[in-house]
């Protein structure tokens, strides 16, 4: 990478580097440049501190409310569909499906932020591989965790900057760095096939070498790595792989991992939320402040941006007895105003935690995979296990064929709304598009057609200007 891209990496390192004092580094987890490699990689404590710094960066405060941390990428996807309505505040350009030009904030953030994390995992892997100060079993566990994180953020880049994998795997994809950028120098664009091959290589290593142990739910263990793998296999239409990975991720027993009584607890406490597999923990003194999406956008009960509303048609999908039906007509709006429905799903405080992955998603991935693998009965049974858990009055449908698949996809939207952009993710990988209906503030002009180019972003101008192997032609026909 040229100077501009390297500058971004250095800025990240400086944010988390306290001093060259060894004790400061070891006592306060962070990546570091001014601390010697002997300190960083010379003990388990140092290696764990570096990993903790990488994990901490998942909630990084970037340039603005809508570009801070991994949750900002996920929430930006949530507002691009039909279920969520966003008023003219943060994320409004994502909601209008226009935030994709090379000089705009969304492409710049969604490119640079994953690459910063990827570069740190590359430094981490290189350092851990080289050290002789710790036993091989510990090294393998730590490398596996770093490879899972590296793979997952390459997955985000693939999702954000090109068509779906099954559209054409030979299409260009962002550059692939398997070593630190300071070692390899800049690289040109890769292909989706090359990127997904590397993602699978990393995640396969992770699931083979991680255990269920971890410091907290902010860290990646074998369950989370399997969940990552299940999402990747979904995108690739590898349904045998998706079924197996999803089942391993949540354990295979829906009744053991679903807790409907916790669904309306505010989605703000990673420790108390038993369905959370992976998420971002925050505290009163270490948090994203006013950038904590979705909570800071969606909660209308305390002082926030009051930005998130919900489509009439989406709200109508929920029965009165469904624990996920947390909608209210808070402002007395009529049928046609965009601000009619809000949700009490998310409770905002500066210390609110944010979910990234939950057991319910894995159950629904397994159900979807069973459908594609010819086990319609198994798919239906898993689907109803979730539905009846969420709604004691639920009645098992008689759907078969594509109607059953559609029911599974609708259930994914109902379960995960405003969390991780599942509606956008499903529409993109099935190449179906998203048609705006109901009471949207911006309606049909923001609808997405199948294989719409607005499903992905243009390569940032900063990268074009700083990378000698990428020029303006990369955005031709984008």
Quick structural summary:
The chain contains 20 helices and 8 strands.
Give the SSE layout.
Blueprint: H1 3-16, H2 22-27, H3 37-40, H4 44-56, H5 70-78, E1 84-86, H6 92-95, H7 105-130, H8 136-160, E2 172-173, H9 181-184, E3 190-191, H10 192-209, H11 222-236, H12 239-250, H13 254-257, E4 276-280, H14 295-298, E5 308-310, H15 312-315, E6 327-328, E7 342-343, E8 354-358, H16 359-372, H17 376-390, H18 401-416, H19 422-430, H20 461-466
Antiparallel strand pairs: 1-5, 2-3, 4-8, 6-7
Helix pairs in contact: 1-7, 4-7, 7-8, 8-10, 10-11, 11-12, 12-16, 16-17, 16-18, 17-18
Task: Characterise the protein shown here.
- The protein is mostly helical.
- It is built from 20 helices and 8 strands.
- The protein has a two-stranded antiparallel ribbon. Strands 2-3 form a two-stranded antiparallel sheet.
- Helix 4 runs antiparallel to helix 7 and helix 16 runs antiparallel to helix 18 (401-416).
- The radius of gyration is 22 Å and the shape is globular.
Strand order of the largest sheet: 1-5
Helix-and-strand structural type: mainly alpha
- Elements, N to C (H/E): HHHHHEHHHEHEHHHHEHEHEEEHHHHH
Strand % is 5-15%
| Oligomer status | single chain
Largest sheet: 2 strands, antiparallel
Round the Cα radius of gyration to an integer and report it: 22 Å
Based on the model shown, name its key terms.
8 strands; 478 residues; two-stranded antiparallel ribbon; 20 helices; mainly alpha; 46% helix
